[in-house]
Amino acid sequence: MSSPMIVFIRTTAPMADSKKPSNLNSIDLSSPDISSSVSLLKQACMESGFFYVTNHGISEDFMDQVFTQSKNFFHLPLEEKMKLLRNEKHRGYTPVLDELLDPINQIHGDYKEGFYIGIELPEDDPDAQRMFYGPNLWPDSDILPGWRQTMEKYHQQALEVVRRTARLIALALDQDASFFEQPEMLGKPIATLRLLHYSGEVSEPAKGIYGAGAHSDYGLITLLATDSVSGLQICKDKDAKPQVWEDVDPLKGAFVVNLGDMLERWSNGIFRSTLHRVLGNGQDRYSIPYFVEPSHDCVVECLPTCQSRENPPKFPRITCETYLLQRYQDTHVDLSTYN
């Protein structure tokens, strides 16, 4: 079974852009100097919405295992992967071209394949009926032994890194450190691990061909693990003409962290959910983003510390579920296409 070719008519020509290397702040999660860490993080959140985190507590040996298991899945025949095609709850396999992140500039979907893994809930759990909760899809253990156990362990460890990072973000917003630990936020989050494989196509922005089109992430924050192959770029000023794209280089042993749209809404635009994209350079590239959003019913609205008479709220109140559903519908192929 082959992946569908989804063709869109580009209404405007992609704008030429320039490139330069990025210089991101690095936040040491083991540092006892909380004040310095918060200061560095706040600067990064205001300037680019991207930063590195180091000394996060996940060993390099285990990360190597996670990447090895990710490659093992993507090396399976397409027929095997399609048996785990993503369901209506966005769990499972996404073929090449399934996701279209920048319909204005892309001529078709992203040149990447992926696999979604959410927080595991049994079908008889009442919350499993919610859109982004429920049981996951898993490869057969006879085909990929230890795969599920590795991914579940990583899912748990990555969430702990996010919680520690969120404490610093809360302090940078002049909130109590435990602000994002409330039950309706990270007390019961929508946390999605996504394995990605860019299979070596060379991107050509002038022709509308991208590994991943330009987009901002939807939720609170994203924790990104990458291999040593470059490709990630950020654009700090989406309205600049031409747009300036900066390369974000892999940093061994570190995660790249970026802010999502909901955090930009909470901060009234003070913290930034920045455009980013991936350009393929002819090499296979593997990355593992971990997307974290608050619970379905969490109301995202401007924090009191981020508004004033001179700077009133810029975004309307919205629930997490409503916002996520709209963004997923806008960027993914309808499942009926695969029939």
TrEMBL record:
Signal peptide location: none
Entry keyword Nuclease: no
Boundaries of every Fe2OG dioxygenase domain copy: 189-294
GO molecular function, one term: metal ion binding
Keyword field contains Metal-binding: yes
Swiss-Prot/TrEMBL keywords: Iron, Metal-binding, Oxidoreductase
Highest taxon of source: Eukaryota
Coiled-coil spans in chain: none
UniProt cross-references to PANTHER family, sorted A to Z: 2-OXOGLUTARATE (2OG) AND FE(II)-DEPENDENT OXYGENASE SUPERFAMILY PROTEIN, OXIDOREDUCTASE, 2OG-FE II OXYGENASE FAMILY PROTEIN
Family of the protein in this entry: Belongs to the iron/ascorbate-dependent oxidoreductase family.
Protein name (record): Fe2OG dioxygenase domain-containing protein
Gene source species: Deinandra increscens subsp. villosa
